[in-house]
Amino acid sequence: MVTAVRVAFFGTPQFAVPSLEALLGSRHAVCGVVTQPDRPRGRGQHVTDGPVKTLAASWHLPLLQPATLKDPAVEATLRAWAPDLGVVVAYGQLVPDSLLALPRLGLINVHPSLLPKYRGAAPVHRAVIAGETVTGVSIMRVGPRLDAGAVFAVATRVIGLDETSDAIETDLSLTGARLLIEVVDALATGTATETAQDEALATYARKLTKAEGVLDWTQTARTLHDRIRGLHPWPHASTYLDGVRLIVLESAPADDAHTAPPGTIVRADRETLQIAAGGQTTLALLRVQLEGGRPMTIREFMAGHAPRIGQRFSSP
């Protein structure tokens, strides 16, 4: 029989929602939720509740939204909640040492990579950009160093050649939620085992920036395709034609070889737009968006615009 434990949950975005839902549907008790302060979201930049806050409020859970976890009121509130365990899922801040030992079972984290690879803020995106064919989710102990704690359990997932980071991340959020409950059950019964990470294999997945979205046409078509997939849905890959920014939403490496300079349009007809890339490879654009416009298939784009063979895409 699994003993129920009291869990303090730390999380903010949609990725964390399935884990909180899984805990709420388990035998364990969520004694409170810590989430980031409300911030502007979406195209209109209106201040709205985050996904975790919305779920917590619907369950009438005790809720804390500190600007920093170092605020003494946070520790005081957590002591009042009296959690046995803390669960951290994409919270968005490092947990200070003063809180790590507060629950008797410590804190654990749901991280969307096969640790020790891709520690840090953007593990799924960085794996896709790097052309990885396998990723996964790890349940680890939270320690003083970023994503370096011992690992309780992992689950692997194949990355499809055309999958985007958002689809993979959504899938891993569900897998991570299921794996989380297994680990919480094991911790509750004292049967959990943990394995130290191999520091020699550690890599860091730094936060994405808008500047990374500009395509470098000297790279191969496959490398560009992976970048386009990895930067979806933010900050998106983009390129420029005659000074106009074109967001690239979907692409495919083409079989056509060429000798044109990188960035040159080598094929343009009613349903096709192919660009010369590095290594004499070719990238076909399949879905695009003009800045401020709506997403379009390449057929829709070609119907309203007239890019010509020989024109060159470039950086700003």
Explain what you see.
The protein has 316 residues and is α/β, with parallel strands linked by helices. Helix content is 25%, strand content 28%. The protein has helices spanning 17-24, 51-58, 72-81, 97-100, 123-129, 165-189, 221-230, 298-304; strands at 6-11, 29-34, 39-41, 46-48, 63-64, 85-89, 107-111, 119-120, 134-141, 151-158, 204-205, 237-241, 244-254, 265-269, 272-276, 282-290, 296-297. The strands form 4 sheets. Strands 5-2-1-6-7-9-10 form a 7-stranded mixed β-sheet, with helices on both faces. β16 (282-290) and β17 form a beta hairpin. The longest helix has 25 residues, at 165-189. The mean pLDDT is 95.
- CATH architect. name of the largest domain: 3-Layer(aba) Sandwich
CATH fold descriptor of the largest domain: Rossmann fold
SS elements, strand count: 17
Low-pLDDT stretches are none
- Determine the number of helices (DSSP H or I, runs of at least 4 residues): 8
Number of domains: 2
The fraction of residues in strands falls at: 25-35%
Quote the average pLDDT. 95
The global form is elongated
Helix content: 25-40%
